[in-house]
Design a protein that fits this description.
Layout: H1 23-34, H2 39-49, H3 57-74, E1 75-76, H4 79-101, H5 107-118, H6 124-130, H7 139-160, H8 164-167, H9 173-195, H10 200-210, H11 221-241, H12 244-254, H13 262-277, E2 294-295, H14 298-319, H15 332-339, H16 341-359, E3 363-365, E4 371-373, H17 375-397, E5 411-417, H18 428-441, E6 454-458, E7 464-471, H19 474-478, H20 482-499, E8 504-510, E9 514-517, H21 519-523, H22 535-548, E10 553-560, E11 566-568, E12 574-576, H23 582-597, E13 601-606, H24 611-623, E14 627-629, H25 636-650
Parallel strand pairs: 1-2, 7-8, 7-10, 10-13, 13-14
Antiparallel strand pairs: 3-4, 5-6, 8-9, 11-12
Helix pairs in contact: 1-2, 1-17, 3-14, 4-5, 4-7, 6-12, 7-14, 9-10, 9-13, 11-13, 11-14, 15-16, 17-20, 17-25, 20-25, 22-23
């Protein structure tokens, strides 16, 4: 039984390298999703850009394009013609020298020969054809002319079989006969395939007889066909890329290959068989070469055309612009061959990253077939945003990040027996003492029992009903505040969901009208370009939320960059006017007063530097004894989280600051910060 084991050089990068880290990718994808990208597109954009220490698809595509331009610029297609011309000039010069110094030659014969040498056509192909039957008097000239025939034969074969040019250097007549026999047998085999009568035994017999000519070691006829057709199509594209004059010269010269038309007959037959069996190859393409100083022979030129085809295929694979594209489509072997092993390693890491993202549970397909972030990914993104908020807030007072266990309230110093559902920390000393006392009366009992456990009591903590109203109007998107607004909502949602589970958060987006949103809806919300800021509707929804939780402390947080310009009419229709209509202002103020009567602690987050907006917001906040903060867009998350935490800790978000809290004052609203991160 034949041994089909194959070995190749390892090209998988560092085998001890850690697995791919998707944290950076998820952060970038989350930011793009909040900017309006779909998760699928956001993932593709990250793979294109790459990470901090990871080359992306765009970098690989750029290197592919540079390599392609380099190949076209540094080469020309005159290589074989120039070699033929050099050998022809050497032969003619050697013959003239021999004619001049041969004293025994008949003068008439000498004159005739010199006339032939002098009147040779300018075309190398025509000159070689005319000298085909010339009886050379110089051994050096005869050898040079024979080299032309040998070169043409080797180049023609090298076009179809890579490496044949060097393998047949100084070939004997027996070597040439063996090549002709191989070509004949190969054409017979391909014609059997075309007729559907070939068998595996036919291929095995062919390889046993001629396998030394195929270093690729194909496993079956299909592999052999693919290799030959790819090379033959590249040879045809090289001819197509030549000027008509170059192409005509080579066609005429090809008849002199090995001094016999038999080789070209077999090669033409081979090309026809390959075109019939592999019509999908690019047989009609061409390339525009520059005037580089490196002339390409037929074999080398075919290799360059194959390289260019590989680079075109890689460019298409790296673009990922076709339907159903996946990074697994990228041919790593071709990439390593064209750009080096490191490029292949970079692409493999991107493939692993794409698989990890799809298999990590961070993204899933909905019923509509669209890819979306899972709750797990939203939590991870929210935690990252919270860490960023904590760093910003800690940086304002130079305090380090503090981590305290528990969020249910401060320890009172007392303990009590554990009851089912308790989340307070155990009092370990009291628990152990209880176990020892119990065992003193019953030495055979367990060392620790449920009734031994005591927990540390904590002070009661007020539940909060939080309404975060975020402006989703045209100006928020236009002025670059769309993503910070979403990040703020997600950070607050994550904080409440992870550390203050007893609180109830309502997210309300208000543009021309207002609506309550799930966090997934808000983070995936595309920028809205309709004008209108319906604060009246947003406050109606916020007050409804507060009334649903009569025993909770209402906390109202309003993020906006404009005055109210629309309101709800009694029939539910939206009224819009700019400048703001007095009725729009009156209705918004009425609902704000209702929020105050419900006990809401109100904080306005004013974005932008409009003096009119600043005066309006300050008057609104003063009316309800609320606070105003004017953060930069990047500090919005820290401002909102700080306000929420201040309301949890002191009962009033602004302390005694009133409406004049101003930018940066939220840094003083709570003491040991950072325990809510982690």
């Amino acid at each position: 039984m034949a041994d089909l084991t194959r070995f190749k050089r390892y090209d998988g990068g560092d085998p001890l390298a850690p697995p791919v880290d998707i944290a950076e990718a998820l952060d970038a994808i989350g930011e793009d999703v909040m900017a309006g990208y779909s998760p699928e597109r956001a993932m593709q954009e990250f793979l294109r850009r790459g990470g901090q220490d990871q080359a992306g698809l765009d970098d690989l595509a750029r290197r592919v394009a540079e390599r392609r331009r380099e190949l076209l610029a540094q080469h020309n297609l005159d290589g074989t013609l120039n070699e033929v011309k050099e050998l022809l000039d050497r032969a003619v010069l050697a013959e003239r020298q021999q004619l001049a110094r041969d004293p025994m030659m008949d003068e008439g014969d000498r004159a005739f020969r010199e006339m032939r040498m002098q009147n040779l056509p300018d075309s190398p192909a025509a000159a070689v054809t005319e000298l085909g039957d010339y009886d050379w008097t110089s051994a050096e000239a005869r050898e040079a002319f024979e080299q032309i025939k040998d070169l043409l034969g080797r180049e023609m074969l090298d076009q179809r079989f890579a490496g044949m040019k060097n393998a047949l250097e100084n070939a004997t007549d027996g070597d040439r006969a063996a090549i002709n026999a191989m070509l004949s047998d190969l054409n017979d085999l391909l014609e059997k395939r075309a007729a559907g009568t070939d068998t595996p035994e036919d291929f095995a017999e062919f390889m046993a007889k001629h396998g030394q000519h195929f270093p690729e070691d194909p496993r079956d006829l299909d592999e052999l066909l693919d290799t030959l057709a790819e090379r033959s199509a590249a040879a045809q594209r090289m001819l197509n890329s030549m000027s008509p004059e170059q192409r005509q010269e080579l066609m005429e010269l090809s008849a002199q290959a090995f001094g016999s038309p038999a080789l070209m007959e077999q090669l033409d037959r081979l090309d026809q068989n390959l075109m019939g069996l592999r019509p999908g190859e690019d047989w009609n393409g061409s390339q525009q070469f520059g005037d580089g100083d490196q002339g390409l022979g037929l074999g080398d030129g075919t290799g360059v055309l194959q390289d260019l085809a590989d680079l075109d295929a890689l460019a298409d694979q790296l673009s990922q612009s076709y339907g159903g594209a996946r990074l697994d489509d990228v041919d790593l072997d071709k990439l390593a061959r064209q750009l080096g092993d490191q490029a292949s390693v970079d692409a493999r890491k991107l493939q692993e990253l794409e698989r990890a993202l799809r298999q990590s549970g961070a993204m899933e397909r909905g019923f509509d077939g669209e890819l979306r972030l899972t709750p797990k990914a939203m939590r991870q993104l929210g935690k990252a945003l919270l860490r960023d908020v904590a760093e910003r807030m800690s940086g304002r007072q130079g305090q380090r990040d503090l981590r305290r266990a528990g969020a249910a309230g401060d320890l009172s110093g007392a303990t009590r027996s554990w009851e089912f559902g308790d989340t307070e920390p155990w009092d370990i000393p009291r628990t152990m003492v209880n176990g020892m006392i119990r065992r003193a009366g019953d030495p055979t009992g367990p060392r620790l029992s449920v009734e031994d456990i005591e927990v540390a009591e904590t002070e009661a903590r007020t539940q909060a009903a939080v309404a975060l109203c975020v402006d989703t109007s045209f100006s928020m998107a236009m002025d670059g505040r769309w993503v910070p607004m979403k990040q703020t909502a997600l950070a607050l949602h994550t904080l409440i969901g992870s550390r203050f589970r007893g609180d109830d958060l309502e997210l309300i987006g208000f543009g021309r009208h207002a609506e309550t949103m799930r966090i997934e809806q808000l983070t995936a919300l595309d920028a809205r370009w309709a004008k209108g800021t319906n604060l009246h509707h947003a406050l109606l929804l916020a007050n409804r939320h507060f009334r649903k939780h009569p025993n909770a402390q209402p906390v109202l947080l309003i993020v906006t960059d404009g005055e109210p310009t629309s309101h709800l009419e009694p029939d539910g229709q939206v009224y819009f006017d700019y400048p703001p209509h007095p009725m729009t202002i009156a209705l918004a103020v009425r609902e704000l007063d209702n929020a105050r009567r419900l006990g809401a602690q109100t904080t306005f987050f004013r974005l932008g530097e409009d003096p009119g907006l600043a005066r309006f917001i300050e008057q609104m906040a003063r009316r309800v004894d609320g606070s105003v903060i004017a953060p930069e867009a990047d500090d919005l998350g820290a401002a909102v989280v700080g306000s929420y935490l201040g309301s949890r800790g002191r009962g009033r978000p602004g302390g005694s600051g009133g409406a004049g809290g101003g930018p940066g004052s939220y840094g003083d609203w709570f003491g040991g910060r950072g325990f809510w991160v982690g």
